[in-house]
C-alpha cells in the first residue's frame, strides 16, 4: 500500500521515485490500562508523522482494526476510555495544528462501531468498501494460488493435450462454478428479517479471497495424501472440487451467535434488520446416503454465542 501511494504521488509530481513513510498501527496494541497512555501513544504517532512530513516525505498512518480504538463514545461498559481516545484522534486530524502531507487510513469490518465524528467530512471522509468477490473476481483470484507450474494430475493434463495452462483454467472454471452455483446443495443459511420475510443465503454470499486460498491449500494437501497412498502425482479436479465442499462444510457452524444483527454486520449483510438465523446443513452418515446428495435440513443451535 505504501509503495502504491508513493508511486501515485510521484506520478502526480512528475517524479520517477518518491520516498515515503508508512506507519502501521495495530489498534489493540495501543490500548493500555493506565489512564492517558493510549492518548500519549496517539500523540507520538502523529508527532512522528508530522516530523517526516516536514521533510517532504509523504506519510501514511494506517490504523488496523480501527473499531477497537475509536468506538462510539458512550458505548463502554466500565471505563469508557473511548471518551478521551476519540477526541485525541480528532484533535490530531483536524485540530488547530495542521496535518499536511499525511494520509490517515483506517481498516475495519465493523464500521458501525466507529464513532460517527471520525467519519465526518474533513476527517476520514472517503469510504471504500471491499466487497466479497463475485464469480469473475474469483476467477482472477484463483490463479494467484493455483498456478500452471504446480504438479498436475496426469489424467487432467491428458484431457487438455498436456497443456498445463489450459488444464488449470479448466479446473478454475469448474471450481468457480461449484462455489457460485445457486442450488440446494449450496444453501447455507435461512435468515429471518424484522418484517417476517425469510431469505435463503448460499455459500457464494460468503465467499472471500481467504476462502479461495484455503480451497487451493486443501487441494494441495489432498494431492500429497493421494500421492503417499500410491496414486499418481499432482493436483486433480477431483481434489479441487472436494476441497470446495470441505471448506463449505467446515464453515457451517460459524454463524452461531446470540445477536444475529451483529453477525450480519460482520458478514457484510446490510439492510433490513435480521432477527433470526438458521443453518441449513447436509445430513451425515447413513441419513445422507438415504436422502440423496443434495438433501438438506435446517438446524437450530441450542447454545449460540460461541463466535461473537
Describe the structure.
With 308 residues, the chain is an alpha/beta fold. The protein folds into two domains: 2-119, Rossmann fold (3-Layer(aba) Sandwich), CATH 3.40.50; 135-299, no CATH class. Helices cover 41% and strands 13% of the residues. It has eleven helices and seven strands. It has helices at 2-13, 27-30, 37-53, 82-94, 135-145, 154-159, 164-180, 209-228, 237-250, 260-266, 286-291; strands spanning 21-26, 59-64, 102-106, 187-193, 198-202, 274-281, 297-299. It has a four-stranded antiparallel beta sheet with strand order 5-4-6-7, covered by helices on one side. β4 (187-193) and β5 form a beta hairpin. α3 (37-53) packs parallel to α4. It is globular, with a radius of gyration of 25 Å.
Overall strand count: 7
Number of separate domains? 2
- SSE run: HEHHEHEHHHEEHHHEHE
Task: Give the CA-based shape.
Answer: globular
Rg over alpha carbons: 25 Å
What is the percentage of strand-forming residues? 5-15%
Strand order of the largest sheet: 5-4-6-7
Structural class: alpha/beta
What helical percentage do the residues reach?
40-55%
Largest sheet: 4 strands, antiparallel
On the 0 to 100 scale, the average pLDDT is 80
